[in-house]
Amino acid sequence: MYESLRRLGQYTQLMAKTFTVPTRWNMFFKQLVREIYKLGVDSLWIVVIISVFIGTVIAIQVALNISSPFIPKFTIGFMTREIMLLEFSSSIMCLILAGKVGSNIASEIGTMRVTEQIDAMEMMGVNSANFLILPKVVGLMLFIPVLVIFSMTTGILGGVFASNMGLNGMNGTTFEYGLHYSFTPFYIGYSIIKSVVYAFIISSIAAYFGYYVKGGALEVGKASTNAVVMSSILILLADVVMTQIMLT
């Protein structure tokens, strides 16, 4: 219990240092663009690949499990759309990104800590938390909606591909009707809002574990692992809370 409270206090203090006004805005924007490209754009390919295959698999599995003649075939398209919009493209995709992006942030900052680069910044009077962490947090939160939109689009296209191929008796026209059936535009905004919260969790938790790492290379690896585990747990917890608040 004491250790948990100590870590919470450390995290709060770190975020207080991070979210201050940058002293040099031109440097901040340069760092921001660099982080958007490194954390966001470089993650685009894995988001697209995973979403296409998951969308295809969801459509196939739903088609396999609809055996009752009382369930219309357009349900396949409807369920594929709902799963992608409500859960996969935000929550599950961010769990995957926690492994890729979170470990990247934790190892980068952790390496700077053990090589005493952060200590050197502090000695020169630089707010190291603001300089290193703020661009990462803001960059990921700004670009995560783009990743979510790509995930939604490519996942649904994967289902459309499976239906047009006629897999498991699916029909392309019926599938597309299911995609349009009872569409709720709010679900897109809901998914984006969730993903922005998850982006903050991933970037800030990973930065915390990297910033306070002690020791050598082995400890940096442990910090990266702890960052991914803690981010995943908090994402799942936030998913339950936000679903209860926003959809009920």
Structural summary, described in words:
The chain is an all-alpha fold and 248 residues long. Helix content is 83%, strand content 0%. The chain is built from 9 helices and no strands. It has helices spanning 2-18, 25-40, 44-65, 75-114, 117-123, 128-164, 172-180, 186-211, 217-247. The longest helix has 40 residues, at 75-114. It is elongated, with a radius of gyration of 21 Å. The two termini are 33 Å apart.
Topology:
Layout lengths: L1 H17 L6 H16 L3 H22 L9 H40 L2 H7 L4 H37 L7 H9 L5 H26 L5 H31 L1
Helix pairs in contact: 1-6, 2-6, 3-4, 3-6, 4-6, 4-7, 4-8, 4-9, 6-7, 6-8, 8-9
Mean pLDDT score = 90
Number of strands: 0
Detail the poorly predicted runs: none
Rounded to an integer in angstroms, the radius of gyration calculated over CA atoms is 21 Å
Beta-strand percentage range: under 5%
| End-to-end separation | 33 Å
* Helical/strand content category: mainly alpha
The helix tally amounts to: 9
* Shape annotation: elongated
- Quickly count the domains: 1
Helices and strands, in order, run as: HHHHHHHHH
Q: Helix fraction?
A: over 70%
Question: Mind summarizing the main beta sheet?
Answer: none
Question: How would you summarize this macromolecular structure in one to three sentences?
Answer:
With 248 residues, the chain is mainly alpha-helical. It is 83% helix and 0% strand.
